[in-house]
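hey so u asked for the seq, here:
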Amino acid sequence: MITYEEAKKMLADYGQEHILRYYDELSTEEQNSLLAQTEKIDFSILSALDSNNNAALKRGKIEPIDAVTANDIAKNSEEYRSVGLDAVRSGKVAAVLLAGGQGTRLGFDKPKGMFNVGVTRELYIFECLINNMMKVVSEAGKWIHLCVMTSEKNHDDTVGFFREKNFFGYNADFVHFFVQDMAPSVDFNGRIYMESKSRISSSPNGNGGWFSSLVRSGLLARLKAEGVEWLNVFGVDNVLAKIADPLFIGAIIKSGALSGSKVVAKTAPEERVGVMCLEDGKPSIVEYYEMSDEMINQRGADGELAYKYGVILNYLFGISKLEEINKTKMPIHTVDKKIPYMDENGEFITPDKPNGNKFELLIIDMINQHDSCMPYEVERGKEFAPIKNPDGVDSVVSARKLLEENGVEL
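ran it, structure tokens below
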């Protein structure tokens, strides 16, 4: 850990000396904590506040992208499954669960994966995902490494929950936890906020920060040493997510693509979902609010929507390309937020309007740095039951209905 003098010099270089303003008032434990927080800060991230950097994040030329369609998968399922199972059985595939979020929107102040979707019995989101993985484990006769990315806020609860539930029957030796890297929160002048005299205001660095966090944790080195070549990355929201799916893995390997993305066909042109596309000839994702009416309604020669493949946060990445990307600087996005902070008088303030920026890395940019990412079309009713709201669209209610339709007892 850096010393007080080293921290003081580093902060002076970036005009952030206020971080140590109350250092002498702190206990030894608090002082050490503050120095450790300071050491972790990547101050280069502050350059994202520069207008030239933000201008560089403007979108390029957007065009439709080809996909492995549901018909393609049906025709080639035997071959895809064989290739995918060989990869799983050879230990070349691991899974990464992005589980840093809380269940706040569900009225649940715990890690989202701990939410109970059962009706007459306990059935947790984490449990649904483990059950889905177990189907592949049983078919392949091979345990698959699962790396669970948590946040500083929910790490202890998540690890404790898995242990309490005996990992839902999964082999604990193959479940690994790591904490997502954090980024400092700043005011509109780039001054880092403090939450208290000993605590720097920070937040997880976006869904594009998962790989650098995996590397920093030391888990990537362990996976590579065991022969892992592919990482299936998925979100905690979707209780029907098929993980380490042999068909998906086999299709991407056979295609020769460097990565793949599971997608669903849009239900309507105006559906609010990010879609796979080409951006300046490279794979990317365009959000619904970035699309013109012309793009939204554009159709191909077959009469189908030109931009119809909605992403569901289930990706397959080759490790070698990810390592190459990790050596470069991914674009940093700034987001205006309401950031609680300690003011100059040492008082804690909860703002009622945006008062600063948080920094995020986005998985969109990770995909765009691949030369190829093959969209892989799945059936919405069998693989897409996201839980984002208490009721309505993409909710606990809709997910329960889909789980029942897929034979899951609630």
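The mean pLDDT is 94. The chain is about 30% helix and 20% strand.
lmk if thats what u needed
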